[in-house]
TrEMBL record:
Belongs to the GDT1 family. Keywords: Membrane, Transmembrane, Transmembrane helix. InterPro entries: GDT1-like (IPR001727). It is a multi-pass membrane protein. It is found in: Membrane. This is GDT1 family protein.
Amino acid sequence: MRNASLKLFLSTLGIVFLSEMGDKTQITTMLLAGAKPLYVIYVALGSAMALICTSFIEVLIGSHIVARYLKPATIKVASGFAFLILGLLLILGVIGADEINTLKGSIL
């Protein structure tokens, strides 16, 4: 594996791993595993297959559609603005409050 490919692989692995750790999907997976402790291997396999499938679809869409029409610099700026807007909406409580309350209710 070339140095640039290894660097891209490791940065993708690190970013996706860190962003998925606190994601609501992972919390749901933990709740499913907790509800069925004898079947954790099936929960783990189902969760892993779902993440592989969604990531594969995202890569296909990104490489065949998004990359065809947008330059990398445009994608970088647009994703930065989207991140800031979503962060502000979460901080202001415009979005996300119902999901947090639902998760609190299902955990308790």
